[in-house]
Amino acid sequence: MSGASSATTPVPTTTAGAPQPSRVGLAGIATMAGSGLSNQTGAAIGSLAFPVIGPVGVVAVRQYVAAVVLFAAGRPRLREFTWRQWWPVLLLAVVFGTMNLSLYTAIDRIGLGLAVTLEFLGPLSIALAATRRRVDACGALIALAGVVTLMRPRPSADCLGMALGLLAAVCWASYILLNRTVGRRLPGAQGSAAAAGISALMFLPVGIVVAVRHPPTLTAAACAVAAGVLSSAVPYLADLFTLRRVPAPTFGLFMSVNPVLAAVVGWIGLGQRLGWAEWAGIGAVVVANALSILTARD
Question: Please, which residues have CB within 8 angstroms of residue 219's CB and are 6 or more apart in sequence?
């Protein structure tokens, strides 16, 4: 398969002591599905700018859009941050940038479906390690089996592209753990907003160099901005809604439906075709998520 996919959107954190959602409602499921579809559609549109500004240029623009959205939503009071709050925010910024860059570069080399699937090894690993129920553990293992099926070795396999996808997975797992720390130490979305702003500053010189060496066309710039809006702004706002209504473990497992959405978007929008093995792997991911959602406790 070939194409493009989304980079990860910052997952909104909750403050310590906040009430946790206890059941999965229709609105929560619809919002999670809509968030994932927006994510993958935005990435597919962003891939259209690859020939002009490359994955690095698209990632840079996406970081800028994410910073604007998160700063507007989180309104961080940077001057009031202590060092105990700053150090996880700084690590989060580095992980955020590395995660998106490695994923988009992997997308350029191995395509939408495989890159997204490899990236989701990160949250799946977190879900498997944190589960307290056997049914969730089984769901995570089924989804993991689907991922392994999708990334089975091929004669034409791009090892560097796969390695970059796995790096994105490691970064996403680190991102989840760091977000927990930031969420405990900073209220609301202040930590995520600060991290996104720092990451955008890191990519500012990169964006300037790309713009000078590869001047973007109006179409390429519009595609990159659309990727930022659809893969950053919309999913972030949707996740704010979802995390108030859906248990965190279910949210984490349901997010692995994104490889399904990536495959569908790639097939319809980018003309990518899937074989039986790919659909079998995707089906395993769907079964795993359905199992978790249908057996979620009240």
Answer: 48, 49, 52
